[in-house]
Structures are given as structure tokens and as C-alpha cells.
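To the wet lab folks,

You asked to see what we're planning to order before we commit. Fair enough. Below is the target structure as C-alpha cells, and below that is the sequence we designed to fit it. If anything looks off to you, flag it before the synthesis order goes out.
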């Protein structure tokens, strides 16, 4: 059941009505209902993996209590490691087992030994496992660092782990935000529901009109990159930048909007990253919940930037390599992470990694300055180049893709694989960028206009755009479901 399906919206309507009518009387009743519908939502993919969520919930619920109840540091650390080893073990088995086996066999073959692989398994990757394991681990970490007291309410904790709007692809929530809301009774708010519906509409627009519309073009270029010149490959990876942004930020908007329908506020996950002026600002605006997770639970415990410059650089490299590996069991993601580390380190060494933390491009101005425009173009180019590794099937394909860009300078007009006019897509991207620049100061209010007439016109364009670009024949799943 995906957010852009008819099944989901039928499910959402039924759950919404029942939640605010039959199950609004008491917080425990609300939470029992949330757990049930969240398990139904997740079980729609594969009911067998419900046991993993239940097991992860139970392990971290009890480890949280044990960490808090022990005063000896060694005991507290022991129970923390129980949570870490269990969750990382789940990820290691379901996501990385075959990767490690294949990599080991490749290394052995380089030494001249030919070993036939009989150890690889047909393992199905459970949807959302990278997200909910990190969410439950953050709970154990926060208790260990005395930032949170454990809950004794198992049902509330189960609702925190399995809350269906953000279960499959985030945002990765901390208990201090999400669990604290689940423990307290929610009250219906008309304004909150309207705000949620607006975010859902905007998220669907980004998914259908931007991501899904660009997917056939990107798929064609990356699948047949050896047949195209440099100009077409540059076009392909540039459009992929917009595709993956529309896909994942669209998902996040729908998730945040859906949560609002139930009286719960999730943290923002995207803050217009395409308007970043350096790589550091980009990571403050892209997949915020993941970058925040790594900063709090890996970077800072390693010493963060409080240690020497050399150790800080080491910590940055570790963070980006781990982040790359989190995305998938493929060397392409590790190279992608390494590339971002190399792009981030110069910004850090120049002390420019936090200079844009509290303002947006074109602050107090209608248009960005020429310097800012140059910064935007340079940052977008760096990020887009890195996505060659992110999108390619293998390291070999990624470097072959780059080699063509660097050597085959010929230009040819690219034709849409389905025969549509490419100029329409270029205009669409340009208008989308201009509109996002207009709303860049508030990612929660995509339709914030004083004039009712303008709002009506924008709503009409958004709905008509979705009807025009909707194509039932393409794969409509979200990219980050594979992570």
C-alpha cells in the first residue's frame, strides 16, 4: 500500500473517520487503534515481516527500561549494546548479508582463488527496516545519555515504532518528539487537518508531476548510457536530481501531512535543498532526520568538531561512509558517501559549514545575488555529479558513465522514449524551481497566499497537473522504499 495509490486513500479515509469518532475518547484507545491500523498498513506488503517490527519494539522497550534502572555505567552500556547489536544485526542480515559474502568472494578471487558461492541467500529486504531500526535505536541512545526517561506504556511505544505515516521511509523520529505526542491524547483541530491535506496535495504533485514524469527519461538514459553522448548523460543525471528530490520530499510531505490528520506533528525532512549555497547547507536541508541522527548518535560521540581538525575530518569521513552504506548494499553508495565527504571537508576546513544554518538564499530580497546564484549552481552541480554513483547499477557503470561525459563531447537532441515533447519537461522543471523559490522560507506552507483567487488558481494548476501527468503504466513506488 503506497501513498500514491487508491487503496491508501480509501484506507486513510476509513482510519481518519474511525479515529475521530469511535476512538477519540481516550488516549489508550487511540493508541491501540493506531497500532492495529499501522500493522495492517505494513502487513499489506508482506505480513511475515510484522514479526520483525514486533520483535524490534519489544527488545528496545525492555532495553530502555533496563538502561534506566541500572546505575552502574557498565550495566547501562551493556544494555545499550543489546539494542545496537540487535538492530544492526537485523539490518546486517536482511540488507547486507549477500553484499558481504559477494565482496569477500571477489576479494578472494583477486588472490587467485575461485570459490563457488553457495552461501548467498534469497533474502527479501523488509520495507522500512532501515528507518524503524534507527528510530528504535535512537530511543535507547537517548535513555543512555539521560536525555529521556523510558515509557512503561508498551502500547504507546509500539505506536511510536509503527506509526504508519512515517513507518516505511521516515522521517526518522526521536522519541522526545513523536512518543511524547503519542503518550498524550490528541484533540481534533480543523486548521491542523487542513494543513495536513495541503501537504498531502503538494507531496502528491511532486511525486506524480515531477518524479514519475521524469522517471521514464532517467531510466532510459541510465539503462542505455553507452549509446548516448555526453550532453544526454548530463541531462539524464540532472533530471535524476529532480526526480529523486520530487520522489523523496514528496513522500515526506505526504507522511507529515498524514500525521497532521491524526493530531501529530512530525519534524521536517526537507527544507528546499536545491537552494543550498554549499554542500554543508545541502546536508542541513536534505533528508534532515537521517543527517541529524548521524550527527547526534555517531558524529558527536566520536568527538564531533570539539577534537582536533584531523580527528574532525576523520569523523566526517566516517559519517559519510556510514551514511552511504546505510542507503544500500552496493559499492556505488559507499563511493557516493566518500564523494560527499570529500566535498564537505573543504567547506568544514574553511569554517563555512554552519554559516547558512539560520537563513535562506535571497534573504529579505526578491531574487538571489549573483554570488548566491553562482553558489547555487556550483552546489547543485556537485550534488548532481555525485548522483551518478547513487543511480548507477555498479561502480563499473558509474565510471563508464563519467568517462563518456568527459570524452564524448558531441551533442544531440534527446527524444523522449514515449515520444512526448521534451520542451514541456524543461518548462515544467523551470516553473517548479521558481515556485519552490517563492515558498522557500516555509516548507510547511506550500500554498501560502493572501489572495483567495491566487490560491484557487494554484490549486487548480496542481490538480490539473496531476491529472495530466498521471500514468498508470509506470512504476509508481517510491525510490527510498528500497533503502
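Sequence we intend to order:
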Amino acid at each position: 500500500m503506497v501513498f500514491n495509490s487508491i487503496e491508501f486513500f480509501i484506507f486513510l479515509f476509513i482510519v481518519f473517520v474511525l479515529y475521530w469518532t469511535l476512538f477519540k475518547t481516550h488516549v489508550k484507545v487511540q493508541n491501540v487503534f493506531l497500532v492495529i491500523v499501522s500493522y495492517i498498513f505494513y502487513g499489506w506488503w508482506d505480513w511475515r515481516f510484522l514479526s520483525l517490527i514486533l520483535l524490534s519494539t519489544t527488545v528496545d522497550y525492555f532495553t530502555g527500561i533496563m538502561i534506566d534502572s541500572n546505575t552502574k555505567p557498565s550495566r547501562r552500556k551493556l544494555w545499550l549494546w543489546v539494542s545496537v547489536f540487535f538492530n544492526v544485526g537485523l539490518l546486517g542480515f536482511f540488507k547486507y548479508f549477500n553484499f558481504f559474502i559477494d565482496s569477500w568472494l571477489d576479494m578472494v578471487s583477486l588472490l587467485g582463488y575461485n570459490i563457488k558461492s553457495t552461501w548467498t541467500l534469497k533474502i527479501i529486504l523488509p520495507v522500512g527496516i532501515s528507518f524503524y531500526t534507527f528510530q528504535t535505536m535512537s530511543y535507547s541512545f537517548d535513555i543512555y545519555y539521560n536525555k529521556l526517561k523510558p515509557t512503561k506504556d508498551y502500547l504507546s511505544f509500539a505506536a511510536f515504532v509503527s506509526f504508519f505515516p512515517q513507518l516505511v521511509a521516515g522521517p526518522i523520529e526521536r522519541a522526545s518528539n513523536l512518543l511524547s505526542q503519542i503518550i498524550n491524547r490528541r484533540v481534533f483541530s480543523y486548521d491542523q487537518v487542513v494543513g495536513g491535506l495541503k501537504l498531502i496535495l503538494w507531496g502528491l504533485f511532486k511525486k506524480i508531476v515531477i518524479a514519475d514524469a521524469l522517471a521514464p527519461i532517467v531510466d532510459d538514459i541510465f539503462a542505455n548510457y553507452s549509446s548516448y553522448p555526453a550532453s544526454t548523460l548530463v541531462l539524464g543525471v540532472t533530471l535524476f536530481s529532480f526526480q529523486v528530490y520530487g520522489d523523496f520530499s514528496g513522500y515526506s510531505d505526504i507522511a507529515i501531512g498524514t500525521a497532521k490528520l491524526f493530531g501529530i506533528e512530525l519534524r521536517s525532512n526537507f527544507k528546499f535543498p536545491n537552494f543550498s549555497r554549499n554542500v554543508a547547507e545541502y546536508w542541513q536541508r536534505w533528508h534532515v532526520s537521517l543527517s541529524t541522527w548521524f550527527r547526534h548518535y555517531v558524529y558527536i560521540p566520536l568527538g564531533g568538531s570539539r577534537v582536533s581538525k584531523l580527528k574532525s575530518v576523520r569523523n566526517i569521513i566516517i559519517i559519510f561512509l556510514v551514511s552511504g552504506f546505510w542507503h544500500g548494499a552496493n559499492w556505488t553508495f559507499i563511493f557516493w558517501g566518500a564523494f560527499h565527504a570529500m566535498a564537505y571537508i573543504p567547506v568544514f576546513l574553511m569554517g563555512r559549514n554552519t554559516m547558512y544554518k539560520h537563513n535562506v538564499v535571497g534573504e529579505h530580497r526578491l531574487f538571489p545575488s549573483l554570488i548566491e546564484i553562482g553558489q547555487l549552481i556550483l552546489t547543485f552541480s556537485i550534488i548532481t555529479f555525485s548522483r551518478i554513483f547513487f543511480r548507477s547499477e555498479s561502480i563499473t557503470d558509474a565510471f563508464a558513465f563519467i568517462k563518456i561525459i568527459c570524452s564524448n563531447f558531441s551533442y544531440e537532441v534527446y527524444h523522449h522514449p514515449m515520444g512526448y515533447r521534451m520542451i514541456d519537461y524543461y518548462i515544467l522543471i523551470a516553473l517548479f524551481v521558481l515556485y519552490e523559490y517563492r515558498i522557500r522560507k516555509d516548507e510547511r506552507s506550500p500554498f501560502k497566499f493572501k489572495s483567495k483567487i491566487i490560491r484557487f488558481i494554484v490549486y487548480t494548476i496542481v490538480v490539473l497537473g496531476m491529472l495530466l501527468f498521471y500514468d498508470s503504466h509506470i512504476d509508481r513506488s517510491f525510490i527510498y522504499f528500497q533503502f
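Structural context that might help your review: The chain has 18 helices and no strands. The chain has a mean pLDDT of 90.

Thanks,
Computational group
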